[in-house]
Amino acid sequence: MIKQLYYVLQNLIRGKGANLIKIVSLAMGLGAAILLFARVAFELSFDKFYKDADRLCIMHEEFTINGTTNSFPVIMGKYPQAFAETFPKEIESATLVMDWNGKAFFNGNVRFTPGCIMADSDFFRTMGIDVLTGDPQELANPDVIFLAASFAKQVFGNENPTGKTLMYNREVPFIIRGIYADIPENATLKHEVIISIPTGPAHRWFEPAWDHGDSYMGYVRLRPEGSIDRINPYVKSKIVDVHVPPRNNGTSYNFYLTPLKGFYSGQNEVERMVLIMSTLALAILFIVSLNYVLISVSSLSRRAKAIGVHKCNGASGGTIFSMFMWETAFIIILSLLLIAFLFLNFSDAIEDLVSASLGSLFTWGTLWVPALAALFLFLIAGVLPGWLFSRIPVTQVFRRYTEGKRGWKRPLLFVQFAGTSFIFGLLCVVLLQYHHVLGQSLGYDPVNVATADYSPMNNDSTDVENFRDNLRNLPMIEEIATSSYSILNNYSGGPIHGANGQTLFAGRFCYTDLDYPQMMHMEFVAGKNFDGEKQIIINEDYARRMKWNPQEAVGRRAMEEAPYIIVGVVKDYPISSFYQGISPVLLLGERRPQNVWHVRLKEPFDDNLKALNEKMKEIYPTKDVIFRSLPKAIVSQYQAARRFRDAILLSSITILFVTLMGLIGYTNDEVRRRSKEIAIRKVNGAVAADVLRLLSRDAFGMVLPASVIGVIASYFIGWQWLEQFAEQISLNLLMYIAVALLTVLLVVGCVVVKSWRIACENPVNSIKSE
What we know:
Blueprint: H1 2-14, H2 16-43, E1 56-65, E2 68-72, H3 79-86, E3 91-99, E4 105-107, E5 110-112, E6 116-119, H4 123-127, E7 131-133, E8 144-148, H5 149-156, E9 165-168, E10 172-180, E11 193-196, H6 199-202, E12 217-222, H7 235-243, E13 251-259, H8 268-297, H9 300-312, H10 317-345, H11 347-354, H12 358-361, H13 368-390, H14 409-439, E14 449-453, H15 461-472, E15 477-483, E16 492-497, E17 503-513, H16 516-519, E18 524-527, E19 535-539, H17 540-545, H18 550-553, E20 565-570, E21 585-590, E22 596-601, H19 605-619, E23 628-629, H20 630-636, H21 639-673, H22 675-683, H23 688-722, H24 733-760, H25 763-769
Parallel strand pairs: 6-11, 8-10, 17-21, 19-20
Antiparallel strand pairs: 1-2, 1-12, 1-13, 3-6, 3-12, 4-5, 4-9, 7-10, 8-11, 9-10, 14-22, 14-23, 15-22, 16-17, 18-20, 19-21
């Protein structure tokens, strides 16, 4: 064993140039594969950390309009407690939760924006989260908060924060009543602060109800013997119909439970991304393994004599095989060390790429991911070359060894060429779609627009007017307008009824001041802007659903039950992102300002935005008013697409590098193997072009069908990825033809470059070397 290791180390040192290429190519390929596999494992681990996670369920609302049913993981505020009271034999506890992110807390003048939720006093018991200090029943009182342990340490250091106060938006004091265990990243419900639900009604922010306001989430913990099959069939008759009598207007709704474990990973977009990332990781791992085999076995002729010497000294085929396996193991270990070095030194870029911290990706429970990838690589990359090396006969010590068979090389290269065209095709789809969603016409103009939330706690109209006047007096501001919702927040929803009272569809509502459509530069296709109250502007989709053309819509009532008159129709625009389809929109004009403020700034935008926020701190030192760039907010909606684009780009570079290394090794081996044949052809009158044509013909015969297979595979995977977008590019056949041709030109060009020297060399030199 010691002697084998000694010879292995000697071979590694002697072939340090080739081994360095192996280590770098393995580190790039194996590192990319490990990251993708780790992200897949992370996606599949969501919500499994809760105590007895199998007993946790999430509530869903099932909403039906005229026979069309949609389901959402939201509820009205009164239902969790009703579930617990109606099914006490099945349900141990239930909790009501509301997302409250984007809010600011102040400790003195230090501002924090933690992840926040609102929850009731049964939250910790239901979710199975450890309370480190404090009584969870305190969440039954208004103006009470609990902090996650890490956030409490961030704000207060090593001090005990219980009983201390944090200011909410500089206006409302919240008393800290306890600390709870941190929530890991693989949670669908992430938070660092929990605000008591009674805080909302106490400040008139909201009021939980039976039949409206489905802005909440509900969670249930089943008893050990409980079953959702004994709950779901009876929810409508025992809860919904009891508290909300059925309506004869074509609308109905129901609620049901599904297991929380598997809820996240079972979503279509998650399943789609898991499939794509798994395919990419397997492709990269397989290609890098085959490339290692190709580079290793290309050195057969160079190492044959040394192996013959080992056999003359008593080494068996098994000994040679184990020596090569040891060599492969050393190279993989060095590659893993290089991967660890890169991960640690570029952790910020990597964490941004995979949208998770390295600590969450590589826990003790997920270390099997890199271990399994390395083991797969070891078996594929070690066994085949080791077997071929062990079969070299002892007679090679007396004569030069030449490998005349190429059958094993061509499939390896074929797979690599197919992988290259596959990843290039997918990269084109991702780049074009990302550019498409960011360059698509929005139907409004977000350039130089900044937004902020501002509304006085007591709804003081004088305060609001003073705020508007203060903004108008600032020199960097060109236009001002307000709305009840951000244009990126999907607006509020509600049913639209026809003349007979039947529900037609669900519309999206937003109250705005009279200047809002004009200030946002919305494009009118009919009618005009607001010129008074009790007026409505709709979008084209609303008109289509009502079976009106835009001109016919002007002057009509938008809703039979309300006296609002349509004065204009604007082009369709997304009220969230292009991940979602266009919705029917109603803008309701009001003279009074709303709580989301929009300002269009003069150039230079970034400098003026900074100056505006500094001015807000000066004018309102006791309030939290921060304007943010709307264009940046739009771009941030597509962070997942941007990260996927970067991952595909990294994979493309990795596969290209690995494939070129394998192709160069193959070409060098072919030139060395056929040097005498080339020399004889040149003696008989062949010119350099003939030699280059001879050597590139084989590569062309492999790369052309491989590229076709690769682009076909990229079409199907690209189509899967595009399914998450409502607005998509069309998959053009010419694009895939261009990708295949680019791959062919890349491969043939590499062969020509590497063959140029032998094509131009004096044939006498090649014959003499034989």
